[in-house]
Structure formats: C-alpha cells, structure tokens
Amino acid sequence: xMMTNRKLQKDIERWLTIEVEAGTDEAEMxxxxxxxxxPRLEPRAGFAERVMYAFQPTPxxxxxxxxxxGWKAATGxxxxxxxxxxxxxxxxxxxxxxxxxxxIVDTTTGGVSWLAGWLANGLEVWSFLVRIGNAIGLAIAxxxxxxxxxxxxxxxxxxxxxxxxxxxxxRRTA
Amino acid sequence: xxxxxxxxxxxxxSQSAYRELVRxxxxxxxxxxxxxxxxxxxxxxxxxxxxxxxxxxxxxxxSEQGKxxxxxxxxxxxxxxxHLRKSNLETxxxxxxxxxxxxxxxxxxxxxxxxxxxxxxxxxDLGRALGEAVERLRREYREVIVLRHQEGFAYxxxxxxxxxxxxxxxxxxxxxxxxxAAHLLAAGWGPAEARRNPLGNAFVGRAG
Lengths: 174, 208
Known about the structure:
By secondary structure, chain A is mostly helical.
C-alpha cells in the first residue's frame, strides 16, 4: 500500500519489521506507536446524562456543619449553666434536703406495689373479656345455635343484596 | 481532583461528583465494552449498566485495595462478559447497519490530527485496517490489547481486571500483536519484502 504520509508509513513498517524479526519489548513499543492510529470508540452525545438519569443517586442526608456545631454549643452551654447553678447553690445559702435511704426504699416499694395493683386491674378487664369470648364460643359450638347464626347471616346478606338491587334503578332515575 | 476524592464526594450525595466520574471514564469504558461486544448500541447499554452498577455499590469500593479506575474497569469487564455468556453474542459487526442513528464505526476511526486531506484519508485507512484486524481477534485478545495499548494499563492491572493469570495476559497481548501484524501484512501494509511473505514463520496467529 503506497502512502504519502512518510511518518505514518515509517511507524507501521517499523513495527511490522520488528514484529517479524524480534517480537520483543521493542516490538511492543513500535506497536504502540502504530496502534495510536486506532482512535477510541466513543458513545453518542449525552451519555453522561443518560447514566445519571438511569442511576438517580439518593443523597445521604447529613446535618450541615453549622447545625452540628450549633448542637454541640447548645449542649455544652446547658451543661455549663447546670454546673454554674450547682456552684451557686451553697453561695446563695440555699439548703437542699436530700431524702434519707429509708424514705427512698419506702417510696420504691410503694411504687412497686402500686404498679402491681395497676397491672392486676388491667388483667381483670382481660379476664372478663376472655369469659365473654368463652361463652360466645361455647354457644356457637352448639350445632343448633351455630345453624341459627349461619341462617341469620345468610338472610341478612340476601336482604342487603335485594335492597341494593331495588335501589339501583332508583339511583339511575334520580 | 483524584478519582478517590470524587468517590468520597459522590458518597456524600454530590451529583456533580457522580457526573464528573462518568465524564472521566465514559470514553475508556465505552471503548473497552464496544471492542468486546462489537455493537455500538449494545455497548452503550452495557457501559451504562456498568456505571449504574458501580455507583449503586460505590460504598463497597475501598481505595486501599486499588485504583478506582481498576475497580470500574473490572465491573465493566464483568458486565460485558456476563452479557456475552448469556446471549452468546460474538458475531456482531461494527459495520454500519440500516439504522440511520447508528454511527459509522469506520468513520469514527478516522484521525483528524493529520494535516492534509490525503493524510487524513491515509490515517483513516490505517485506522480502518487496524479496526478490522482488531475485530478479527479473539474476544480475549481484543480486550487485553485495548486495555494495554489504548488505556495504558500495566500487565498486573489487566490481570486484576480480567481475572486472568499474569502469564496468560502477557501471552495474549503478544499473540494479539502477532495476529494484528499478520492481518495488516496480509492486507498490504508494511515493507515490500514482508508483504511478499505476510504469514511467514513469525506469524502463526489465528483469527477467530
């Protein structure tokens, strides 16, 4: 193939000659020069937009730096105020009476017994409901009552169906 | 900005970081996939899938384990391989079909840096001949030759991306080069004396 572009011709011939004769690293380097004539294939325009549309990243919601610093400052300020207030208590001559250990125990045990009584009341309600459910269950389990209930349900459903059928033409004419 | 820094920004929700990562890698990723599957439309779909997969599991990327580009190319390689295995598509051609929107691959192969119209035409000829020779290579050869000589990856990196042993990668590249040389000589390129014996002893390549 005759070529007027001397450099291009030399590049390709050099590689092909070396490849035939040597086939070493030198051939690889010569090949690299010749292979540069093969441009990269490219996607159509707008590829990035199509990728972004297909992906649609969900950003991780994180509090801003200001918000985080504000939160830290508020917490620190509140703790400092508590510390200052505690430090001012003796200076202001205020005496704080701490409850004795006996009083704490009394309060705790009283609280526990109140909680137990409260739970027992709650359970009373549930046991009452269980008794009602039990009675209904027993009644339904009886064949006669079960059949009567079933018949009542069927009659009720049939009545509702008929009522609906009668009402449809009236709705249309209204 | 480094790719790895862009990954951190993307993970914190920056859309522009994602977009920049696509912009940086769209061409090399598409080029590799297109050379592997030899179909423009399919290559675009697979390249897009590769990005979407990569971004969906971006938090699993660890910079200590290697460069982001290697990680992304590995995903693109796996995506293309999975598709080829599923559909057994190895017979597509880069020739322009009936679709008017489909770009002419051979026109894309033209190099626009040369000076005169004749030189442009000659480089386009060489590009076309190289493209046709690359197309005739085995898929494995096509992939490694593109990774090595178009994307500039080291042998070790290619082995990591393709999950092939290092020795195999070197062998594939060597054979690919030999086969390309044989194809080009047979097509009439190269010195006159070599053209007289284009498939001499040095060229025992096999197109497939």
